[in-house]
Amino acid sequence: MATGTFAEKGADLELVGIQKRFPGFTAIESLDLFIPEGSFFALLGPSGCGKTTTLRLVAGLEEPTAGRILIGGKDVTSTKPFQRPVNTVFQSYALFPHMTVLENVAFGLRRRSIASPVEKAHEALRLVELDHLAARKPGSLSGGQQQRVALARAIVNRPALLLLDEPLGALDLKLRRQMQLELKDIQTEVGLTFLHVTHDQEEAMTMADTIAVMNKGQIEQMGAPEELYELPRTAFVANFLGQSNLFTGQVSGTTPDALTVALGSASITVPVARAPRRSGTVTVGVRPEKLTLLTSAPVAEAGRNVLGSGRVVDVSFSGVSTQYVIAIPGAGDVVVFAQNMVFGPVVHVGAEVWVSWAVEHGFGLEDAPDEVAAGVHDAAVAAGLDDSGFDSEPALEKA
Amino acid sequence: MPAGPRRRSRIRFRGLGLPIYTALALIFLLIPIAYTFVFSFNNSGKLNIAWQGFTLDKWTHVCDAQGVCEAFTNSIIVGVVATVLATALGTAIAIALVRYRFRARSLISLLLFLPMATPEVVLGAGLAAQFLSLGVNKGLGTIIIAHTMFCISFVVVTVKARVSSLDPALEEAGRDLYGSAAAVFWRITFPLLVPGIAAAALLSFALSFDDFIITNFNSGAVDTFPKFIYIAAARGIPAEANVIASAVFILAIVIVVVAQVTRAARAKRLARLH
Ligand SMILES: Nc1ncnc2c1ncn2[C@@H]1O[C@H](COP(=O)(O)OP(=O)(O)OP(=O)(O)O)[C@@H](O)[C@H]1O
Ligand SMILES: [Mg+2]
Known about the structure:
The structure holds two protein chains of two kinds.
Chain A: E1 13-22, E2 25-35, E3 40-44, H1 51-59, E4 66-71, E5 74-75, E6 86-89, H2 101-111, H3 117-127, H4 143-155, E7 161-165, H5 173-190, E8 193-198, H6 201-207, E9 210-215, E10 218-223, H7 225-230, H8 235-240, E11 245-254, E12 258-263, E13 266-271, E14 281-286, E15 292-294, E16 304-317, E17 321-328, E18 332-339, E19 352-358, E20 363-364, H9 369-388, H10 393-398
Parallel strand pairs in A: 3-8, 3-9, 6-7, 7-8
Antiparallel strand pairs in A: 1-2, 1-4, 4-5, 9-10, 11-12, 11-14, 12-13, 14-20, 15-19, 16-17, 16-19, 17-18
Helix pairs in contact in A: 2-3, 2-4, 3-4
Chain B: H1 3-38, H2 57-60, H3 68-99, H4 105-117, H5 120-134, H6 140-164, H7 168-176, H8 181-210, H9 213-218, H10 225-235, H11 239-273
Helix pairs in contact in B: 3-6, 3-8, 3-10, 4-6, 6-8, 7-8
Magnesium ion (MG) binds next to helix 1 of chain A.
């Protein structure tokens, strides 16, 4: 693109029926996606679910087996990477080892013959606080510094669509927060479109307008962060994005507003509007922080679900809040997050307790009962991997 | 203590043995070179076998002996042209073999090894037979073709190792950053392959400059330096040939030393920078 000017604004991205097969492995089954121009879109999912593959397809580094890719309304499916108004921050950085940091950053500007590339490169390096290292070769930088150079090298081009593949993964918390703000600033200032891949849910929720949760090459659910969190539609999303208590039982009654699910001798009510499946065996859930822990049997109250009694089997203190695990006969293990309003835990292991929550906080899942276990399992594997810092291998075997 | 002296003597033997052994090995290796060098100053006539006294004439009038300089020039021409051709073709083949999947890829890899494994006599004779049946006149052209042929294999093997160690993501990043195919090749791929390509070119030139057997089959009346010496050896090699051989040797040493020194200097400068 020998235009010599920056994009005036972001471009929207549309993926239509995208499928990607590698020899012997289908990485993306069928993907439809629309990202409006100027939005900050986060793609969240466990290792090996196809996030990088999706970005590579958009960048043109990989050809889809089927489907079409449109950027700014133009079909770019068969165009070359350098013809697309797209830049990528690579997960592996991919800095040119034989060029200085400055030349790395200026590379894209020079290819498009944009005026004063050196000044613009310095400016981008100042943004990521690395201008003092401009003369160095990438090999002599730390991982976090290299990652910031990769970021500068992409954003300096002000592309209509910027693809970020875990661009902040190697940074410490403070620097990461700072870079998040910088990124958000750049994005809103010019109104560019960002497609941001991350493992970090908190990052996705704080930065993105829209989050898509991906699993096994498919988008499980897409929406605003609050919507995804408050109303997850699948067991995978419910447990991948934060944690959820899930209960499976038969629908025992329906009113125009509410659905009642029998759970042993107890029953749980959820608003009909928040429950896509309304008959037969259904799974309903509630977030752990929505639960209230009670040390005596509560009086029945309209608009509140009560479970119990059960026994506290685990208490773990984490500063701001305490996590309690309560074994309730008929309902299984229920997790409660309670703010530490007093010193230390309110109850101890072995105590008899009840839990209650407002009916409007409950949600029903779209998943059929047999899909729930698989979703919970996938999310647990993903969470386990994140905790131990392992990379993709076990997830790949499973996939 | 009986163990003490015994151990000491063994240590002393080892301490002396290794240097003596090394010195002998080096002398053995260097004798032919030293002989060549010393006899380049021999005030000899046609025969350069017995020491006749010291002179610098052979160094100052190196082209006086018949055929020495022509043969040397031919060797340089053949070496340079064959190196350029073999390096260009071999590099392209190496990149194709590593980067692209195509039919018969592994077969081609295998075939490229054959010239290295085949005895030179067979290669030389086989090629000569082809030239004969095609009615090609032997001369500089046929020598260049022959040398290019056997050098390609070495270039492919050398450059391929370098291409394999090159992260494809770098080229992808180049394409993503608006680099056309040519820009990506010349600004990213090529500079990163240069050490491998340079090594391959040096190897090619050395192999070509040195080759006698294949050249002898395919050169017709044209002499290269090794061929000249081989033929002259029957009558006695003129001291001018020693001059050229010594000069080439000294040049090679100088190149190596300069390369080492500049590299050390650069490393020191980098270390100081950080
Ligand atoms: N060239 C390829 N050939 C075969 N399989 C591939 C290829 N590239 C990717 N895959 C497979 O496609 C799946 C998705 O890979 P991808 O790199 O998109 O994962 P990801 O979501 O980015 O994971 P991570 O979070 O670990 O980076 C993986 O199972 C991977 O093994
Ligand atoms: Mg990835």
